[in-house]
Amino acid sequence: MSGSLALRLLDLAALLAYFLFQGLLAREVLLGLSGAGDHVWWILPIATVGGYLWADFISGFVHFLADNFGSIRTPFLGPVVFRTFREHHVDPEAITRHSFLEVNGANCLISVPFAAATYYFVPVATSVLGLAFGAFMLLFLFGIFLTNQFHRWSHLPRRPRWLRALQATGLILSPTVHQRHHTPPYDTYYCITSGLLNPVLARTRLFERIQAPLGRLLEPLIGKAEPVDFGATSDADTDAAA
Question: Domain boundaries in the chain?
């Protein structure tokens, strides 16, 4: 079996497992809502907004880490993660040439343990606090699932009218917002789910403030992010991430 086929099968398995546990978790949330009565109506809107914004923040934080820390020569993480993120700046449209599984498989794989742990260990259907946490995780993980798809859509050279209209609402990442990140030196507007938190994070300079202390912690473990000339953009046609 070729390496690329094995990866796609892993992506498919991750996708199926993701929807299985998200479906089970959604069932628990619905059971909890129906059993708790009308006084918990507030949980869903708060979980939706909170989960979606948290997904946006996590997408930006992970993006910030992968862009700024770790050598491309670090075993495994270097070629698989760090190089992929940085080559995205060389060939931003490479992400549009990947299949649905390639774009979304990795996020599904990362999300499955969190969805499974919430389903098995949190009393979602029998506790108000458990219900609130379960609903939050359900919506948060759905936002994480959508992140790379929204990112891919922001790089499409031709976008259908419905997508342009959706991006114009600001609810999903738009090319205009994301272009701020793709302007050298590529050190701002890291969030790629909706991008709603980008102006706040840029104004507060959160990532700039934590970069030095994180560097002292991470660089001894994963190496320093070296400036790299990746050469021809054809080499950058790797899995979508940055």
Answer: 8-236
